[in-house]
Amino acid sequence: MADVIAAVATGKSPCAIGILRLSGDGAAEVCGKIFKLQSGTPLTEAPNRKLVLGELLDEQGRVIDQALAVYTRGPHSYTGEDTVELQCHGSPAVLAAGLTALFHAGARQAGPGEFTKRAFLNGRMDLTQAEAVVDLIDAETADAAANAAGQVGGALLRKIGPVYDKLTDLMSHFHAVLDYPDEDIDPFTLSGYENTVRMAVRDLAALLDTYGRGRVLKHGAKAVILGRPNVGKSSLLNALAGYDRVIVTDIPGTTRDTVEETVRVGRHLLRLLDTAGIRETADRIEQMGVQRAEQAASEADLAIFVCDGSVPLTEEDQRAMDAALECPRSLALLNKTDLGIVVQPSDLWFEYVIPVSAKTGDGLEMLETALDMIFPEGEPCDGSILTNARQAGAVLRAVKSLESAELAMKRGQTPDAVLCDVEAAMEALGEVTGRTVREDIVSRIFERFCVGK
Question: Cα-flanking dihedrals φ and ψ of residue 284, to 5°?
Answer without folding.
Answer: -60, -40
